[in-house]
Amino acid sequence: MIRKRLLQIGAFIAGVLIFLAPVAAAESGGDPRRGEALFVGTASFDNDGAPCLACHGIAGAGLGRAGAANYGPDLTPMYEDYGEDGVISILEDLSFPSMEPIYATRPLTEQERVDLTAFLAEVKGNGAPPIGAALAGQVGLATAVFLGLIGVLGWRRLKNVRQPLVEKARKKKG
Q1: Which residues pair with 74 in a beta bridge?
Q2: How do residues 114-142 score in pLDDT, each as one tens digit?
Q3: Residue-level pLDDT at 1
Q4: Average pLDDT across the chain, whole number
Q5: Which residue, 48, 29, 128, 22, is CA-closest to 88?
Q6: If one looks up domain 24-123 in CATH, what number appears?
């Protein structure tokens, strides 16, 4: 009886947590789709600032090769590192000197900061798949093909060079 009651309470709490999770994300009023559009530049900032993708990447956000950082760091872990308030504060205060020339006269609006934060919250932990194993496999395959080609092409030459040397050595011995 007690066990059944504990299971019911646990199920109720789990249901409440599942229900509240989207509400907590929506409390900030951020729209992750608009945040993504601002990030990649398909939507313009109100004060004409450059899109984030001009300098930063978001690995694993489905942006393809454009998702890789080219000047600034990859922002995938930013939300995990700083949290919602920290990200909004960074976007407001221009904590990094390289951002000042770009946004000092073109600050982000409060809604843009909230939308970008919602997008960063959505992509957190979606790092790019590790390319080490795939790259190692491709390099290994290319090496095997190269060595196989050298072996096939060089076998005949090796035989033609080695045979006269072996015969010459035999004649000298005896």
Answers
A1: 57
A2: 999 999 998 876 655 555 566 777 888 88
A3: 57
A4: 76
A5: 29
A6: 1.10.760
Going by C-alpha positions, the residue among 109, 98, 96, 95 that lies closest to residue 49 is 109
- Residues 143, 132: Cα–Cα separation, whole Å: 16
Convert the pLDDT of each residue in 47-61 to its tens digit. Answer: 999 898 888 888 766
Q: How far apart are CA 155 and CA 108, in angstroms?
A: 67
Residue entry with tokens 């395959």: 141
Residues 6+ apart with CB under 8 A from 55: 69, 70, 71, 72, 98
Measuring CA to CA, which residue among 89, 76, 86, 90 is closest to residue 119? 76
Q: Give yes or no for a contact between 26 and 115, defined as CB atoms under 8 angstroms apart.
A: no
DSSP 8-state class, residue 53: G
CA angle 23, 29, 31 (to 5 degrees): 100
Average pLDDT in the 2-31 region? Answer: 52
* Domain positions in the chain: 24-123, 130-174
To the nearest 10°, report the CA torsion of 66, 68, 69, 73: 140
Report the pLDDT value the prediction gives residue 101, as an integer from 0 to 100: 87
Residue 116 near residue 52 (C-beta atoms within 8 A) = yes
Residue 125 is encoded by which pair of tokens? 């932990």
